[in-house]
Amino acid sequence: MKVKEIMTQGAEVVSPSASIQKAAKKMKEANIGAIPVCEGKLQGMVTDRDIVINAVSEGSNPAETAVSEVMSKGAEWIHEDEAVEKACQKMEQKQIRRLPVINHQKELVGMLALADIATEAKGEKAAETLEEISEDKEKGQSGGSCGCH
Predict the structure, then answer these.
(1) HSE toward the beta carbon, residue 87, CA cutoff 13 A
(2) CB distance 110 to 7 below 8 Å
(3) How many of the other CB atoms lie within 10 Å of CB of 143?
(4) Which of 134, 133, 34 lies closest to 93, judged by CA?
(5) 21 and 50 in contact (C-beta within 8 Å)?
(6) Could you tell me if 133 and 96 are in contact, meaning their C-beta atoms sit under 8 angstroms apart?
(7) Residue 145 within any structural domain of the chain
(8) Handedness of CA 113, 115, 116, 118 (dihedral sign)
(9) pLDDT digits over 43-75, tens only?
(10) I need a surface site. Which of 69, 74, 76, 92 has the fewest CB within 10 A?
C-alpha cells in the first residue's frame, strides 16, 4: 500500500515569514500541534513545543517573531508513492507521529499521521508503531517492527 492511499490531503501550512502568533492560531483552528512550513517547497515544521521553548520562554513577541526563527529545519518527510511500511519504519526510527508527504518536486501534498495508519490497518500497525515511537531510546530500546512487514 502506498502512502498517498491513506494520507490526509490538503494539509494546513504556514510560511517561514509568518508570525508565530499566526502559526499558533492555525494550529488552534485545526486542532493540531505541528504545521509544515512551506514557501513553494517544504522547508521544515513548527510545533507548539517549538513556539513555547524557542520563543515564549525567551519572552519573544508572538506577533513579531517569525516562524523561521523557531521552526525545526530539515523535517522528516516521505514521498507520496512510497510504501506505508517505509513510513512506519521512519516514524519508529525518528520517534515521530506524523510525516509531511511530498511529491517528487518537493511540494507538500499531504500529511501522514499515526491515525491514518490506525484507520487503514485496523489499529495493529499503529499500535506497534506507537509502541516503538514511545520506547525510551536512553534505555537502549530501539528498532523493532511496526507490523507493516
Answers:
(1) 31
(2) yes
(3) 10
(4) 133
(5) no
(6) yes
(7) no
(8) positive
(9) 999 999 999 999 999 999 999 999 999 998 888
(10) 74
Domain region containing 132: 3-139
**Exposed/middle/buried for 121, CB within 10 Å: 0-12, 13-18, 19+?**
buried
Question: CA 46, CA 127: separation in Å to the nearest integer?
Answer: 25
C-alpha cell at 27: 494550529
| Grid cell digits, residue 37 | 512550513
Domain holding 101: CATH number?
3.10.580.10
Residue 148 lies in a domain: no
pTM: 0.75
